[in-house]
Amino acid sequence: MKSISLLLLSTFTALADFDWQTQSWPSQPATGLQALDQKPTERKLIIEGNKTPFAKDGKYHRVRVPVAALSKSGTLIVASEGRLGANPDHPPGTDRDWDHVLISRSTDMGKTWTTSIIDDGKNKLDVGALSICSDKKSGKLFVLAYAANQGGKVLIYQSSDDGLTWTQHHQSGTTFTGGPLQQAFRMRPTNGIQLSPLHGPSADIILPGVIGYSKNRMMGLLRYQNAQDAWTLTTTFENVTDPQLAGEMTVAELDGPQAGKLYFITRPESKIHGKMKSHLTHTLGTKPAPPEAWSDSAFSFKRCNQNLARYSFKEFHNKSRLIFSSTKNLTGKRLGGHISVSYNNGHTWKSRAIVSDQEQFGYSQILPLPDGTIAVIYEGQNAAGQATTALYFKRASMAWITQGADAGLVK
């Protein structure tokens, strides 16, 4: 096990477990983090690679594609790909390199991190991309991987002890297929969401992904049914007239007048819509409409995922907020990163840069933390300046994002 310890300039108080009925941590600590309205914390290294083969020195060629979730107890869990630089059929560190599946944990909201390998695949595993899901009602955690070099099998890892140990779920290896051609469902790097009490008592998990390739590309949803302890492919968005709109997806639950609906932002597979993204709203149990090109999107197009999350529900916290993270894509490169907030279920957004326009900001995840601050986990350069080799953590307040207009979840 590799261990990394970092100092974060704030205090932390132990929390009670997440309360499912109120959608909150009941003992949110009053940490005085309103000072963060001036600027976010300095970036904190989670883990990095060094562009040498893992077999040479036990360090990864690159560490990429983080997905993140909060456990029921408030632990930050980051799953990522430790790329070995060892596949003789492909250049080191590429998407078709061999990988270890890694878990990084922080029990103190980013102050310290530990990283462990949960699957080494006998050093010949190509996971493609990972997804992560947190069941804050039962405490279970799931990491799902599309095993590209194992016939498209879906590897499902689960933990019942806050991410300390992992086993394979009883459905691990199942190939989920859908669409007219019954092609395989592939996770793209994102986090699943757990349906709130606004959707009823089931507390099921929804995980978006892609079915098929090229002209047959579609969007789909896996659903984890809590009562049955089973994953099923439940919905296929048959957007065959415009398959390029099906790319890396991210989802959040809506509230207010649209309570019970899901909102998706997708990164189209190619730049057919210029700098546009696409989005759609969907009600579970109904026939999905195809995604629509987002002509007035505030977010740049780039072959790089983004992340959407619910910060608060109006029904539970008096104000409705969605948050979003994405590269700014300056000069066609993954430079600069912004985080954004919407108060109207994604129609309009207020954005602010979380890293400078000279800093690399690749695949990212955004999470509301128990004390109301916001965590961003993203790909960046290692200490030697080598691209897409390291994962970083930063923390900001809602007050900083909105320049003092919104204090966020504070007592």
TrEMBL record:
One of its GO terms (molecular function) is hydrolase activity, acting on glycosyl bonds. It is an enzyme of class 3 (hydrolase). Gene3D superfamilies: 2.120.10.10. Transmembrane segments: none annotated. It catalyses: Hydrolysis of alpha-(2->3)-, alpha-(2->6)-, alpha-(2->8)- glycosidic linkages of terminal sialic acid residues in oligosaccharides, glycoproteins, glycolipids, colominic acid and synthetic substrates. Residues 1-16 form the signal peptide. Its EC number is 3.2.1.18. Keywords: Glycosidase, Hydrolase, Signal. Belongs to the glycosyl hydrolase 33 family. PANTHER family: EXO-ALPHA-SIALIDASE (PTHR10628:SF30), SIALIDASE (PTHR10628). This is exo-alpha-sialidase.
